[in-house]
Amino acid sequence: MSASLARHVHWTFKRLDDPAEALAYGSELADFIGLTAPDPKQGRTVTGCLSRLREASWWRRNLHKHCQRQIENSYRQIGHVHHKRCAYVSSHTYNLYQHCQKLSREYLLRTYLQSQDGVNLSLAEISDSTIANPANRRAELMTRVRGMEEYAQAHGQVGLFVTLTLPSEYHASLKEGHCNSKFNGSTPKQGNKHLVGLWASIRSKFHRDDIAPFGLRVVEPHHDGTPHWHLMLFVDQSQRDQIEEVFTNYVLKDGASPELLPYRLKIVRIDPSRGTAAGYVAKYVSKNIDGAGLDFDKEGRPFKDTASRIRAWASTWGIHQFDFIGGPPVGVWRELRRLSGMNTSGSMGSAIAAADEGDWFRFMEAMDLPQDCGGGFGVQLMKAHTEAVNRRTGEVWSSLKNRYGEDLPARVIGVCAGVLRQPTRLRHWLGTQFDPLKVIGLAGRQDGNPISLSGHLGLV
C-alpha cells in the first residue's frame, strides 16, 4: 500500500505545476487516511515536504504508526485495557513493544563505532552509558529535582504538587473496569494534547502576571491508558495562593463544575517538616521509568512490570513522559560532565565543578553567574556543522543540508562562556559491524577486526 501511495503521489505531482497545489493535494490525501503530512512551517521546505510524500518509506512508517495506534484504541474502546485485564496498554501492543525492544537491542549489540585512534565500542555499550539506560535516566531526573529543591530553599521558595486530570469523556473505562458510556473515543494522544492546551493557557496567565515557577512535569497513564499530569512546581511563597487560584480558575473554565473540581485538580503544598519534594516525586519518577525501589502496585503486580507497560504506552502514543519547566538547559550539563577533572576558573570552572560532582543546585547557581569574558550569563552550548565521509568513494561533505536539500541544525561540539571556548567532542567515529557469528559466540573472524559498513564520520 505504501508503494502504491508513493507512486500515485509521484505521478500526481508531475501533473501539477504549482508546488503549493501539489503539497495541498498530498496533505489532503494524508489527512483522509488519518496521517499528518509534512508541514513547511516546521522548518521544512515545500520541496522537502513533496520529496517525503513521494517516498514509500514515509508512507510505510507513518501508516504503521497510525494502524498500531488505531488498533490499540480499539482495544480501549471494547474494554480490554484496564487494571483488571491489561493495565495501560493491551497485551497485543505490549508484546509488539517488547519484540521491537529485543530487535533494537540485537542491533545495538552487533553494531560498533570505531574512532580514529582505534577505540572500538558497541552501540549497546554507548547506549548503556547514556540516559537511554533507565537507571541513568532516573538518576539524572532525581539529581535535577533534588538540585531544584535545594535552589528553591536557598531562595525562599516553596513546593507545590499539582495533579491535572482529563474530563470523564476522555476515559475509556471506569474505575471498576467497566466501559465508560460517556467515552468520546479519543486517543491518549488527543487527551494529552488537551492537557497541553490547558497548561499553555495557564502558563500564559503566569507570564502576564510575572509568575515564573520551575520544576518537573510527569505524564503517566490511568489504568485505561488515559493520561494525567503531575507537576512538581517551586514558586515564590508570596505567589503561592495566586498560583493555586490560576489553576482553579482555568480548570473550571475547561468545563469542570465546582463539585467535580476535586476530581480534575489536586494541589498539595509540600511541607518540608514532613518530607522533601524530591522524596514526594521519587515514586512517580521510578514508576514511569524502571520501578527501582518499589515493590508491588495496588493490583499486586511488580512495579518493574508496571514500568515496562508504561514505557510501552508512552512509546506507542508518542507521549513525552518527563519535561522540566524552567531552569538551565540540561544539554550544557551533559557536555560539562565530559570535562571531568578540568581546572578552569570563573563561571565556566564553577559549572564544570558542579557538573563533575553531580550537584545540580551548584550548577544552577553557576549558570546565574556573569561570564568572565562576555556580556551574558552562565555557559552555553557551542555548535558547528561537522563533516561526513562517503565510505565507498572517500568523498568528504559538510552536514549543512539533509537529503531533501533542507538546512540542518548545527551539531554540538562543546561549550562556551563569552569568548571562552571548550570543545567536548574530540573523537571521530565510524560505523562498523562485527561478524554476526562472533557476536553470538560462534566461530567467526579470528582477527577481531570490524567489517566496515557504509556510514558517516561524526563527532561524539
Largest sheet descriptor: 5 strands, antiparallel
Q: Report how far apart the termini are.
A: 39 Å
The helix fraction, in percent, is 40-55%
Instruction: Look at the helices and sheets and give the structural class.
Output: alpha+beta
How many domains, in number, for the residues? 3
Describe this structure in words.
With about 450 residues, the chain is of the alpha+beta class. The chain has three domains: about 1-75, no CATH class; about 135-325, Alpha-Beta Plaits; about 330-425, no CATH class. The chain contains 16 helices and 15 strands. The strands form four sheets. Strands 1, 2, 13, 14 and 15 form a five-stranded antiparallel sheet that branches. A five-stranded antiparallel sheet has the order 6-3-5-4-7, sandwiched between helices. Helix 14 packs antiparallel against helix 15. The longest helix has 22 residues, at about 55-75. The radius of gyration is 25 Å and the shape is globular. The two termini are about 40 Å apart.
Question: Quick recap of the structure?
Answer:
This protein is α+β, with helices and mostly antiparallel strands and 460 residues long. The chain has helices at 2-15, 19-33, 46-53, 56-77, 91-110, 123-128, 134-154, 188-208, 240-253, 261-264, 277-287, 303-317, 330-336, 346-356, 360-367, 436-439, and strands at residues 111-115, 120-122, 157-165, 214-221, 227-236, 265-269, 322-325, 380-384, 387-389, 396-398, 411-417, 420-423, 428-433, 451-452, 458-459.
